[in-house]
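Hi everyone, sorry if this is the wrong subforum. Our group has a chain we'd like a structural model of before ordering constructs, and none of us has done structure prediction before. Sequence below.
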Amino acid sequence: MRRRRHRRQTAEADLNITPFLNLMIVLVPVLLLSMVFTQTRILELRFPEAGERLDEMVDDGEELALYVIVRDGRLEVGDRNGGVLRHFEPVEEGRPDFAGLRELLKGVKERFPEIRDIRLLAGPDTDYQTLVTTMDTVRGYPEVVAADAVTAELFPDIALGDAPAPEGGGADS
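Answer:
Right subforum, don't worry. Here is the predicted structure as tokens:
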């Protein structure tokens, strides 16, 4: 019997990358269009140093020392030298009345345009979003000037602190 010799054929395999390139042509623009562009903003705040009370942060010669107390959805705006200016009750679902706060602060800014600072005093149960929204509200408000939307300045220099205990009891009510 005769032996057959098997001859091995060695052919080079061609790598077909056309489908992969087609996928990349479609995928890259889709990923670029869906990319989220974030903007990081830095807000400079003044905190009391160790042992320093919030009362000591105020200059003695200052004629108006505004503060906003945020506690349980309520807002209280006052002057340290003159007392409480106004209370704002929650408007809906326990959310503070930021529109009323903005209007009051606009009126105060018209009377005292040179004042730039305000104290923001937060209660222990104040959530982060309420605190940030309050800071945005006291810093400025949107306004249209010469057909451009700009942010008009109210009180951009914010000092943060803890709210004092509510009057008439030790617990928040």
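For your construct planning: The first strand starts at residue 45 and ends at 46. The two ends are 107 Å apart (CA to CA).
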